[in-house]
Every structure is written in C-alpha cells, then in structure tokens.
Amino acid sequence: MKKPEIPPEIEEYRDERWRREATRQVETALDAERFIEQAGFAACLTDSRRPGPSLYVAVCGRRDAVLPRNVQKDSESSLTWTLKDELVRRGKVYYAKLARGKTMFLAPRMIPYFHAVWGLRRSEEPVRLSKNARAILMVLRREWEMSTWDLREESGVTDRAAFTKALDELQAAMIVVPSEVYYQPKFTYIWTLGVGRFPDALRRRVNRATAVREIARCFLAGAGLTIPGELARVTGLSRPEAGLGNRALVAEGYATMPAPGTYRLAPRVNPAS
Cα dihedral sign for 133, 138, 144, 150? Predict the structure, then answer.
C-alpha cells in the first residue's frame, strides 16, 4: 500500500511548529527548551527519515536534514549533542530513553501523560522490574545519584550489557533519568531518580485514556495532520491505542477524520486550514 503523502500546506505548518526553517533554527539551550515546550515532546538525533519533531532537525533548520555517516565531524550533530548535554544538566525538560528505546525530550506539561502510559507505581516494581533493575534502583534510592561506573559496582550488576539493559528498563518505566554527563577523566553519566527533578509531574495521577488523548492532541497540534501509523511510530504507542486517542479528539471536535487512519486539526483550531 502506498504511503499517504503529506499535503504541502501541512509540511509548511510543520516547518513552523517544528523549527524546520533557517530563520527559526535552534542554536542555544534556551532555544531548545522553548522548542521542546512548544512541541510537547521531541526526539534527540532523528532526522527527516523519521516522523515527528526532532532537536537535530531543529538545529539544522531544514525539513530535509539527514544525519551524516560520520556524526563526530559534523557541526550540526555536534551542536545537537552539546545541547542535549546542557539540557540534561539544566533539568528544565525531561530526557530519557523511553518506550521502544526511543530517546526523547518531554516538556514538563507532558510528563504526567507519558507516565500514565509507561510509568510504574512503586507497588508494581517487584512484579514488573527485573532483578537487575531492582538492584540498581535500590542503590539509587539510597544514594540518590551516582555515576555509571559506581552504580555498576554498588548494584552488583557488573556485566556491561546486563547493566545497560536494566538501566534502559528503569528509564522506560520513567523511574531513572540522567542528570549530568562528564567526558573527563572518562565518559560517564550521572544517574538519579526522576521524581527528584519532576516530583509534581511524576506524582500526578492521570487515567490512561486521558493520557493517550492528550499525547495525541499534543502531536496533532504540532503536526497539523497525522497519517496512519504516524502517531504510534513517533510516540511508541500501539497503533490501536493511538487510534483511540485520535478518535477521542474527533469526538470532542478538536480533529476531523478525512480518511480512515488520517486525522486533521479541525478548522477552528488549525491556522493552516
């Protein structure tokens, strides 16, 4: 089946909303925080081959940006990575490896909705977290923050691959986040509990249906229109659940459904209409 094409006016709408314009490209950490707040959530180093807002594309300021093979020598990739480190250090936006291993930034207003879908309550941890993840979490709850190397030693999860897998598990459950990164004397992240940085957002209770609807609203507000499978691919939601979120927007008049699986901002909320 041929992939539906994005209409030119929608591409132009996304250019403005996702900073895919040379006149609005991201250059500083403050620019990046404002971009993430407007977008609601964004990937870090994805390019034009993946849908959705991206910090790298916003740094490039063009919709056709493609990551080069040698990112270490590319100035735009380097700036994106430097900004990522600064955003982690500043702690104004949420950053972690979330659903399906997607590294994403979240605006604080979107944290409760993502947490309602993918987060774990403490009572669920013994059942749903692996033994290694629980060992790492026990150390962090005692020490509050720790470098990668020290955390491996203290937790007893000394195998690198097993440690990485467990840490990814804790990030996906929205329990642990990086809080700092150092390159000297050797590269390491400092890890901490997400609730320490975003206590109100992570403690706020939201039901799943509301969360999915608001994630769909956030994406549609920036995209203008979403084609089949796009919301699921960007956020990590399943396609059936993404559809439920989009149809909830249609039911309240926020969106229209011009074709099966395609949703567009209703004219009253869409300046591109």
Answer: negative
